[in-house]
Design brief:
Elements lengths: L1 H10 L2 H16 L10 H14 L15 H13 L3 H23 L5 H14 L11 H17 L4 H15 L6 H17 L3 H28 L3 H16 L5 H9 L5 H17 L5 H25 L13 H15 L3 H11 L1 H19 L3 H5 L1 H12 L6 E3 L4 H6 L17 H9 L7 H8 L3 E4 L12 H11 E7 L2 E6 L9
Parallel strand pairs: 1-2
Antiparallel strand pairs: 2-4, 3-4
Helix pairs in contact: 2-5, 2-6, 3-4, 5-6, 5-7, 5-15, 6-15, 7-8, 7-14, 8-10, 9-10, 9-14, 11-21, 13-15
């Protein structure tokens, strides 16, 4: 009995759960280190960050549709740890841990430590599928939003906390533009309590602190581009192209329908349902402490609703967008477990069910996790783009150019200049809203694809097989171009390199 009592005391300590969360993140994420490319967006972020590391403002030499703060975050990682894909991935893992700790802190305000810990642990396991393995913009953005929510919930009477929350929400918006919905939603919340709240004077100060702190990051960004006489590039990249691209995608209703068919994410929906039931039941309590807790529920649902709405208006339904709601699923799962805690049999069964995603994660990643931890050369041996870059670099001349139709992380290893600003993300070259907006502004040529073809790059990097399917109607043209002008230079695993058969190349028009 004494041993069981010590275990219970150990499980009631928050630090214990932080360590458990860290171990769970590593156990479910570190096995992916051998996969050099999980989602090609990650490679694009790294290339954009490399320009920042070189002292360039984003979008001057390369273009990507994402807002700039992610590039600064990854540039900071590279500045500290060097050009390391492992460091980039571990940064994403750290963001998952940060979101989890914030969700745990929020959940513990309503439920016991054990329920909060197991609920958040379930959320970590939900991030284990492939869509949660790479370092995406969702990970740092949600870490910032969850800590902003905790500050607003736990420290509502502290101006510094409200200001810090405003700063974090602003930076999250500069990481994922769609999260501007959250910034507006909480601005309206502070406006509401400043008009109808019990302490309107303090609420007005909170509103001012929230707005002023939130304005700092965009103002600093504007000042930096104004100093470089590049405000037009900032507006074109962050505003004009983003609006043109989002307007060409599916509607919010269509996006919602697409998400409803993702059967593998039903556990998330179940967790949200538990939280909804507990929240509704709490509305019927009328004592002062309960009203305070109801306010916290309102803030939780305001954040969850704003984030969910921001996802639906992006005009797409990618799997990795579920990373927006997984931290909330952890909080709501904690609430459900807390409600079941008085009934020990039901609580034990619920905790056991919460472990099921962990078993699946171990089945998928367990063997590679062991190899990553026990075989020092396994990760490097698996990185075909690094080996390919070394092979190209051995024969590359100073004026040689590289066009990456795929596997574009090769450009990072080579520190190669892009054949076009727009191909930082390879598929941008054939996305009509992006190309037309950039070409109309004179950022790229009117027919950028043909300009690249006429320039006859020295090397073309791609995947095995025919020209990538994303090229659409241009795929056959590009394949014929490669067949007629290039020879196979190198192939390793999933990376193929073609080399121009003639060294004489006319200048691009």
């Amino acid at each position: 009995m004494a041993g069981l009592r010590q275990v219970r005391l150990f499980a009631d300590k928050p630090l214990t759960w932080v360590l458990i969360f860290a171990a769970a993140v590593l156990a479910t994420q570190i096995g992916s280190l051998h996969r050099e490319s999980i989602d090609w967006d990650e490679g694009t972020f790294i290339l954009m960050a490399s320009d920042v590391l070189d002292g360039e403002l984003p979008y001057i030499k390369r273009f990507d549709i994402k807002p700039p703060f992610m590039f600064y975050l990854l540039a900071g990682v590279m500045a500290v740890f060097g050009k390391s894909l492992v460091a980039i991935r571990l940064f994403g893992d750290f963001c998952i841990l940060a979101s989890s700790v914030a969700a745990f802190a929020i959940a513990r305000r309503k439920v016991d430590t054990l329920s909060a810990g197991v609920g958040v642990l379930l959320a970590i396991f939900m991030s284990a599928p492939t869509f949660g393995q790479h370092t995406s913009t969702e990970l740092p953005a949600m870490a910032m939003l969850m800590w902003a929510l905790w500050l607003i919930i736990a420290r509502p009477d502290r101006l510094w906390a409200v200001a810090l929350a405003g700063l974090l929400i602003s930076l999250a918006t500069l990481t994922r533009t769609n999260l501007g919905v959250v910034a507006v939603a909480f601005g309206l919340y502070f406006l509401w309590i400043s008009v109808f709240g019990a302490n309107q004077s303090r609420a007005r100060r909170s509103l001012l602190a929230y707005i002023l702190a939130g304005l700092v990051p965009p103002l600093v960004l504007v000042m930096a581009y104004a100093h470089a006489d590049a405000l037009d590039v900032l507006k074109l990249s962050v505003v004009d192209v983003a609006l043109a691209y989002s307007g060409d995608q599916m509607s919010a209703l269509d996006a919602f329908k697409s998400y409803s068919w993702y059967w593998m994410f039903k556990p998330i929906v179940l967790c949200l349902a538990f939280g909804a039931v507990d929240t509704v039941l709490g509305l019927f309590r009328s004592d002062e402490d309960s009203r305070k807790l109801v306010r916290e529920d309102v803030l939780l649902w305001l954040m969850f609703g704003a984030v969910s709405g921001s996802v639906l208006i992006t005009g797409a339904a990618y799997h990795h967008y579920w990373l927006h709601v997984i931290p909330f699923a952890g909080v709501f799962a904690s609430r459900g477990l807390g409600a079941l805690r008085p009934s020990r049999p039901f609580f034990v069964v619920a905790c056991s069910l919460a472990m099921i995603p962990f078993y699946f994660a171990l089945m998928v990643n367990g063997s590679t996790t062991l190899r990553v931890l026990t075989e020092p050369g396994f990760v490097r041996e698996s990185h075909g783009m690094r080996r390919t870059a070394d092979r190209i670099d051995a024969v590359r001349r100073p004026d040689d150019t590289v066009w990456a139709l795929g596997n574009h992380l090769v450009l990072w290893y080579l520190d190669a200049k892009p054949v076009s600003k727009v191909v930082t993300h390879p598929s941008n070259l054939v996305r009509a809203p992006i190309i037309s907006t950039l070409s109309d502004a004179g950022y790229i040529a009117k027919d950028e694809l043909r300009r690249i073809v006429r320039s006859r790059p020295t090397f073309v990097v791609s995947w095995p097989g025919p020209a990538p399917a994303y090229l659409g109607e241009h795929a056959k043209e590009i394949q014929n171009f490669i067949n007629s002008e290039y020879v196979l230079f190198y192939r390793y695993r999933n990376v193929v390199v073609y080399r121009l058969w003639s060294p004489a190349r006319p200048e691009a028009d």
